[in-house]
């Protein structure tokens, strides 16, 4: 899953927690993106397994390499 941290109506933390609470979704790799402060945002997600962080703006090849590494 690739998703932005800032989502309409909720945020990436809420979605990620909901995913981790479900047995069928708790091992799915997640790549989080955001234009917000990378250091502050990254620390919010350090407690989760199989989560990577990619600050915006990013190049497509960086995203692809990260996706390949996580699978």
How are the SSEs placed, and which strands pair?
Layout: E1 2-4, E2 6-7, E3 10-11, H1 12-20, E4 30-34, H2 38-44, E5 51-55, H3 60-70
Parallel strand pairs: 1-4, 4-5
Antiparallel strand pairs: 2-3
H/E element sequence:
EEEHEHEH
C-alpha geometry:
globular
Helix content: 25-40%
| Radius of gyration over all CA atoms, rounded | 12 Å
Estimate the strand proportion: 15-25%
Biggest sheet record: 3 strands, parallel
Straight-line N-to-C gap:
11 Å
**Mean pLDDT level:** 87
**Spatial arrangement of strands, main beta sheet:** 1-4-5
Low-confidence stretches: none
Number of helices: 3
User: Structural class from helices and strands?
Assistant: alpha/beta
Q: What's the β-strand tally?
A: 5
Précis, in short:
The chain has 71 residues and is α/β, with parallel strands linked by helices. It has helices spanning 12-20, 38-44, 60-70, and strands spanning 2-4, 6-7, 10-11, 30-34, 51-55. The longest helix has 11 residues, at 60-70.
Structure, explained:
- The chain has 71 residues and is of the alpha/beta class.
- The chain contains three helices and five strands.
- Strands 1-4-5 form a three-stranded parallel β-sheet, with helices on both faces.
List keywords for this structure.
71 residues, alpha/beta, three-stranded parallel β-sheet, two-stranded antiparallel sheet, 3 helices, 5 strands, 38% helix, globular
